Amino acid sequence: MEILRKSRREAREAVLDDYPSACARFSWDEARTWLDGLPGEGGLNIAHEAVDRHATGEDGERTAIRWLGKAGARREIRYRELAELSARFANVLDALDVAHGAGVFLLAGRIPELYLAVLGALKHGAVVTPLFSAFGPEPIATRLTLGEGRVLVTTTSLYRRKVAPIRDRLESLEQVLVVRDDDQPLPEGTRELGPLLEAAPPDYAIPATDPEQPALLHFTSGTTGTPKGALHVHQAVVAHHATARFALDLRAGDVFWCTADPGWVTGTSYGIIAPLSLSATLVVDEAEFDAERWYRILDEEAVSVWYTAPTAVRMMMKGGSERARSRAYPSLRFIASVGEPLNPQAVHWGVEAFGLPIHDNWWQTETGGIMIANFASMDIRPGAMGKPLPGIEAAVMRHLPDGDVERVGHHDEEGELALRVGWPSMFRTYLHEEARYRRCFVGDWYLTGDLARRDPEGYFWFVGRADDMIKSAGHLIGPFEVESALMEHPAVAEVGVIGKPDPVIGEVVKAFVALKPGHAPDETLRRELLGFARKRLGPAVAPKEIEIQASLPRTRSGKIMRRLLKARELGLPEGDTSTLETSR
Ligand code: AMP
Fold first, then answer.
1. Which CATH class is domain 8-454?
2. Pairing relation of β-strands 281-285 and 334-337?
3. How far apart are alpha carbons 396 and 261 in whole angstroms?
4. Per-residue pLDDT tens for 482-518?
5. Which of 51, 94, 145, 259 gets the highest tally of CB atoms within 10 A of its CB?
6. What are the beta bridge partners of residue 511?
7. What confidence score (pLDDT) does residue 555 get?
8. Digit-coded pLDDT (tens) for 201-216
9. Beta strand spans in 117-270 (E)
10. Are the C-beta atoms of 334 and 366 separated by less than 8 Å?
11. Is the minimum distance from the CB of 340 to ligand 1 under 6 angstroms?
12. Helix 310-318 vs helix 344-354: angle between axes, to the nearest 10 degrees?
């Protein structure tokens, strides 16, 4: 088997320099001592650990966020300033009588206000949900309703396009705070955030925060039913901080670029909280992916640790490594990737392009932080996700007929990836769906819904999902949400949605549709359906392909057989399709 060896020097210089002894020594209690806690035994608050504790003295002068605007603007926000801005936001919430524990949602591109509002809301004790700004009105309405959002922070243009049309459905929503990004009059029913921030005091004493107090609500898709709201608590920061040190080799003073959007869990855990908790400088690029721009940022912003995703890497690979090699990247020390399988070629491409391999790691919304990784000090097996972090016990499980699970009998046998409960960033429930939450556990084990195998050396390999979830450009998409949107069209009788393998973005969302009588299956209607879905769901979730069929295959109980549709699409034998159905 191919192995990419690390030198002794590389191992010695890594934060996690000796994996076996770190695993033997480490405890989450020790990791708690790496953080400060609120003054006067006031508990643990993410925003204090991420910002306020670095805001005074010399540390306060360090750049917390280096923001690169789409059109070339730049803004450096120092820790001291970020502490003040987030304090102002917390005071705005107080002034508006927003209850502690209320849901504060954010819908914005990567603009500075997004970051100060997340941190300010955490100071205030709100439960924060960043939404992906490429969502269309339907996913926004579903999530705001399920999460009982009371406050929404957005921009005037996003509000007009995506929220105004659904506003009357959002019964819990009390306040909409907008950042102006156009010249039109302020939309009715909103308040402008800028003047509110200016009028608010720049200091805020964070109230006592129980480490188990809810802090973040991240929605993730389910195979059936509505999206699931995975609830995380303030002490998740213990794991954010420790795992960034171990798996990303991140240290104080690093210039760190996480390319994930805060609308997805990676963009919050590692795009905001973890690097700030370590007193690193965060690069935030407002613009969408552009290979040339990314090479320039890595070079000119002197990025030292880069955390990205396989789709982005594969898009860069398409342009060839010469383009990457036209720059030097003298500061770049470590590259990691997450979210979907990282193919071995991509690991090697890192070496060709940057002189550094790409380190794959694995986690999911529910785990709140990285669980399995290829560490800086450890030989890489290209294609493997790596080994469990210190403090994490992972296993490959086989399901028994009585509902119990047991570890698979031998190495390399496939089963469901499971984690022993007890790490601080584990989700505490699916909001209002306690039964669905409990179904994820058997005894002490959390079952991840992923299929994996473990090799004799202890490396974990991703095999696939145990369910019908789709991973497209790193985004987890639930087929049900897409099917429900298409079912709203008057011509549609039935829909089945699958992920169709794609060499660059992993999977593309493909919908199979059967029409109601009286509708002709022509190109005009197919295009109309594509546009209809895109308008409701937004470009990140909508199907890229729609195929109209006379009827769709169903089980005896009437469920559309997505797996059969997928098997037919791939030209596979149809018998192999009735595997595991999970309840998640
Ligand atoms: P999300 O909750 O949206 O972050 O998606 C989590 C899912 O993404 C996991 O359950 C996996 O199916 C997939 N995933 C995350 N990281 C990896 C990885 N390194 N390799 C393969 N799949 C991954």
1. alpha beta
2. unpaired
3. 30
4. 999 999 999 999 999 999 999 999 999 999 999 999 9
5. 51
6. 497, 546
7. 85
8. 999 999 999 999 999 9
9. 127-131, 149-155, 175-179, 191-192, 214-220, 228-233, 255-258
10. no
11. yes
12. 60
What integer is the mean pLDDT of 48-56? 98
Cβ atoms 399, 26 nearer than 8 A: no
Portions of the chain given CATH number 3.40.50.12780: 8-454
**Dihedrals phi, psi of 336, to nearest 5 degrees:** -135, 160
pTM: 0.95
> Which candidate, 380, 381, 336, 377, places its Cα nearest to that of 360?
336
**What is the token pair recorded at 317?**
């690979």
- 469-570 falls under which CATH superfamily? ANL, C-terminal domain (3.30.300.30)
How confident is the model over 319-343, as a mean pLDDT? 94
Question: CATH 3.30.300.30 residue ranges in the chain?
Answer: 469-570
Q: Which of 266, 476, 582 to mutate to test the pocket of ligand 1 (most atoms within 8 A of CB)?
A: 476
CA-based nearest residue to 581, from 399, 365, 367, 405: 399
Q: Where are the alpha helices (DSSP H) in 51-206?
A: 79-95, 112-124, 137-146, 156-158, 193-199
- Nearest atom (ligand 1) to Cα of 361: 19
Ligand 1 contact via 460 beta carbon (within 6 Å): no
Among 412, 405, 391, CA closest to 445: 405
- For ligand 1, mutation pick of 223, 311, 364 (most atoms within 8 Å of CB): 364
E strand map for 426-489? 429-430, 441-442, 445-454, 460-465, 470-472, 475-477
Q: Looking at residue 580, what is its pLDDT? A: 40
Cα Rg of the chain (Å, integer): 23
d(CA 159, CA 168): 13
- Asked whether 512 and 486 are in contact (CB, 8 A), the reply is no
Please work out, in degrees rounded to the nearest 5, the angle formed at the alpha carbon of residue 292 by the alpha carbons of 291 and 296: 115
Q: For residues 373 and 387, give the distance between their C-alpha atoms in angstroms, rounded to a whole number.
A: 5
570, with CB counted inside 10 A (0-12, 13-18, 19+), is exposed
Angle, CA 449 vertex, CA 448 and CA 455 arms, to 5°: 75
Kindly state if the Cβ of 364 falls inside 6 Å of ligand 1. Answer: yes
For residue 481, which of 129, 141, 108, 107 has the smallest C-alpha distance?
A: 141
Specify the residue with its C-alpha closest to ligand 1, atom 7. 364
Nearest CA to ligand 1 atom 4: 364
